[in-house]
Every structure is written in structure tokens, then in C-alpha cells.
Amino acid sequence: MQKKIVQSSLALTAAAALSLGSAFFASPAMAAGPQKLDVQSDKQIQKALSEVEGVNAYGERNGKLSLGVEKITPEIEELTKKFSNVKVTEGIKELQPYAKNDLVGGAGYLVDSPSGGGVCSTGFSGWDDAGNPVVLTAGHCSKQYNPSTGAIKGATVVDETERPSTAQAAGGDGFEKSGLGVIGKWGFTSYGSGDLLSGDPETWPLPKESDIDFAVINVDKSKYNVKNGVTDWTTAKTDDLSTKLATDIAKVGPHTEGKIQKSGRTTGLTEGQVIPRSEYDFDFQNVGGYWVHGFGVTSPASKPFSQPGDSGGAVFQGDTAVGVISGGGPQGDGTEFGWVADLDYSLEQSGQSFNLQKPGTETPEAPAAPVVKDQTIKPNGDVKGKAAANAEVKVDWKPAADAGTNSAQAAKDGSKTVKADADGNFVLEGPAAAGDYDYTATAIVGGQESKPSEFTVTVEEEKTETPTPVERAITVDPKEIAASDFVKQDKAVNITVKGFDEGEKVSLKVVAGPKNVKGIELDETANADGVAKFSIYGTSASDHSVYVGKYDVSVTGANDTEDESALTGSFKVVADDQGNGGGSDDGKGGGDGGGDLPRTGAELTGLAAGAGLLLVGGAAVVLTMRRVKKN
């Protein structure tokens, strides 16, 4: 925020002292042409300027000394011939400080002294580091100044604020007290140095870094409140200048070239142009016989940037406070010149603390917005991001407008607050339904919310494998069995079917067989793989020959459609001298690997006395098959 003179001959005392031992002053005898003045040496500058009068502006930059004078005298002309790095600008007049006792005051407040009163303008309101209210203004408002001699006889006393409706900016004559009481007392004050009105060149002083026109009023907080901002004077008739501001001041900073504004009790709110350094190459200006550090402003004579009584007034660019009015006057070319004591420099030199918000009441700085990238996740996958360490992160989402057809679950908005870890990482569960979602994430630290971050989360549709359809099939094992084996419980004909629905009722019928064996039926429930298994064997071991013959079986399901055919198969029971005990209906043989199954069933009545009985049973087996219906 602070600004210093660049490569100035008015460098810090220690630096200046170091330069004296090695300073080199080139005399005319040592060279035929102009020499360079060692601008880093105060001693050499003093010697070079000892016979020069009428210097009203002074500046040094990049090894060049710039002097401003009202008229070039023979002495000054000789100086420019002697030194190639001395530049002289003619037409620079001595300025008079505003707030003279006979005519002017300050911007919005009165001052008093034994020799009379005056009026000045307030600059900027705020607080020092201790939280005390202060007003910044021009230093010469604090002095009893004699404009004829430039002599300062003592200090003024801060009085009341001026009644706004009577000020010259509002069309009045001014100098009328507001009745609100004395503002406060002077704190730090400084009005340059010099006695430049003296005609003795031997005593002509050089500017010092501390030459500023700057003062602080310590405000009586029992009578006044300080309010940040600069008035535009449009509410002066109401005697309340705080209700309409030209700007809120956000910071103190250096001035820049271009448009600049000022608010003061004489001319109100005005505009001017900062004079570029290339056109007015000076750091210090003679204001009433005293050096003042600052910068120049030009304006039309018909619309002056400042006038007497505007001293101390606020000079600003946008929301940046850049200075207070020091002095000014008309120029010969029909323009008005103003000199502004630069505020950042004045604060640095004075050591005065100044805050635009009362210390301890500042609003904490908002945290940085979370950093979250667009991401693609699986249903209920993790949504991840990064925020300030240990921040609360509020996350909101909704289906994107162009997401297409989402499920009912995706159509619902959502919100959740999670906590970032010590490294700032946060994670939360994403939506379950597929689709695109618009997300926002806001970090919350110390009750302050960040700006929201926007990102997109795409939930991929979960892919499931559709099992390969399983055709219904029947296996009979064995296809042929000896009668003596058929009547043994541990040997039977196993019939396995597949391709049914889980839990479906499956029915087996012996639809044809030897005439002396009654047909049978049995129901079984298909397992999770759509498989059911039946076993058939004879119960009349004393006359197993009665079972000899061919048997046809039919298997249907409770969920069968009209177009679905029953599964059919057959097996033979043969006489012992003919049986081979093997074979299966699907031609593969060897059964289905299901192993021995418990036999269940019931004895069935034969068609004639002594006829053999056929026992049937059912059991489920685990096979990785599912049923496919035929429609």
C-alpha cells in the first residue's frame, strides 16, 4: 500500500550518508561538455542550487533532477547548461494553501485559533489500530498560517462540523456550525518543511521524505460516529451527507493516471485528470512556502477540481482512497492546477494506522470455492472434491435439464452437508439411478460461505448379464434296465427335466406301459435353476417279470402356455437275460451326475391280482440351467 520515492536524492539518511564518501562532483575543468549531477548526494545538490531562486516544484527519478520554476532566470539557465541531468520546467507557480483565515475553511469542519477561524474539508473516516475513530485531512488545516509571510505561529483547535446546507458546495456562505459539538482533537499533524519564501539561497532547503501535508483528527466518539465512504453532496439540504455516497471506500492505494474525483465543502463532488509523470515530473510541490509530497491534477478553469475550503477533502479513484487536497490555483493556459497529498505515502511517513473497518469487527474473508471436477461414477458411487481444510461442504444436486428420461428416483433433488478432512478432501455417496446430474458445492468456514462451484456427475447405467436361454429338456437314465435291478430301491430309472421357472410345479405322468402296471402321476417343484428330478422303480421283488415292457413318460409345467409341448421320454424294463443296464434318453448315458437321491413316492394298485406295483419318487438337483418357454 505504501509508496516511496524511487532512487530519490532524499533517500533514507543512512543511505545518503553512505553516498557522501564516494560522491563525485565533476567540475567544468575536468570535461568540455555538461556534467551529470550526483542526485544521490544532498550535499552536491545543495551546492548546485545554492545560487538558484524561485524553485516551486522538485522531483528526482532515474538519475534526473526535475525543477519547476515560475520563470527561468539566468542562474537557472546556467544550471541547465552545467548539468545534463537537470531538467527545468517554466511556469510552475507557488501554490497557496486552502483554508486561509480570511476566506476559507475546511471541508465540513471548522477550526479556531487566536488569530481567527477557518474551515476545511474532511478526507476519509476510519479507525486506528486501537479501534479509535479518526478522520484524515490536510496538515496545514492544523496550523495558524500567515499567507503573506508563510509563517506558522501555532496550532489551530478543531471545532464543530459545518452545517452542510450552508456550505458553499450547497450554495451557502458557509462557516455555520452544525450544533453537534466539537469533532475532537488533533492527533498527528505535519505541514511539510521549507520557508521557501525566503530570498536567501544559502538557506534554501531541499525537500525531505517526511514533507507531507497530512493530519489526523481523533474523533470524540461520544458526539460523532465515523462512516466509511465519500459524500456526493446531493443530500446537503437535509444536513445529512451520509445518506447518499459517491462511493464506499474499500482500500487505500496509489493513484493511477486518468480520471480522478474529489469531494469537498466548497466545490462538492468534482472530477479531474491526473497529470502524467511524463508531463509533470515532480514529487514535491511548493505549497505556501513549504514542500509537500504528492501529485498534480488538472481540470478546466470553469470546473475546478478544488478551491479554497476544499483542503483536506477526499481524493479517490473508484473505491480507492488516494489522497487529500493540499493546494492549487489557476494556470496561465486557462486550466486549474491542484496538488494532492498522496495518502498512501502520507500514512507511511506519519506512521499513522488507519483501517476502513473497526478492528475486531471485520467480516472474515470468505473461504475459497471448492475444487470439484466433472466425474462419472457407478450407481451410489463416491462423489469426490476438495475444499478448505476441515470445512463444512454443502452439496446440492438435481437431474440435469438435458439428462433425458431418468427414473423416478433420479428426478428428485438432493442435498447433503459433509465435512472435509485435514487435507480438504471430501466425499459423499452419489445417486443410485443412471443419468446426468447438476451439482453445486459450497464451502463453509467460520460461518462464511464460499462462492458455489458447479460440476456435473454422470451415473452410468448398471449393466447386468442376461443368462443364455435354456431349452427345456428331459433325460432318462438308464434307458434300459433289467427287471431284477428295477425292483431294487438303490437302482431306479431317474428322470431329470430342466428349463422350468423357479418354484414352478412340474408334473410327471407315466402315460403308457405294460398292461398289468397301472399308470402313475407325481408332482415336483423346480429349484432355483429350473430343474426337477423324478425316480421310478418297482416294488414287487417276488415277481419282477411283471414289469417287463416299455414305459412312456410325459412332463409338463404349471406355467406352460398353449403352444408349449410336454416333454416326453421312455425307458424299457427287460428280462434279466436281455438287460444291459445302461443308456440314456439323450444319447449321452451315465446320468446327470446328481448321485443317489432319496426315494419318495407311494405304492400303486395293480390292474389284476398279483400284479406288480410301480413306485415313483421326486427330488430336485442343482444344475446351472434355466427354463425358456416356447410361445
Automatic annotation (TrEMBL):
InterPro entries: LPXTG_anchor (IPR019931), Peptidase_S1_PA (IPR009003), Peptidase_S1_PA_chymotrypsin (IPR043504). Gene3D superfamilies: Trypsin-like serine proteases. Keywords: Cell wall, Membrane, Peptidoglycan-anchor, Secreted, Signal, Transmembrane, Transmembrane helix. SUPFAM superfamilies: Trypsin-like serine proteases. Residues 574-598 are annotated as: Disordered. Residues 579-596 have a biased composition (Gly residues). The chain crosses the membrane at residues 604-625. Residues 597-631 form the Gram-positive cocci surface proteins LPxTG domain. Residues 1-31 form the signal peptide. CDD domains: alphaLP-like. This is Gram-positive cocci surface proteins LPxTG domain-containing protein. It comes from Brevibacterium metallidurans. The lineage of its organism: Bacteria, Bacillati, Actinomycetota, Actinomycetes, Micrococcales.
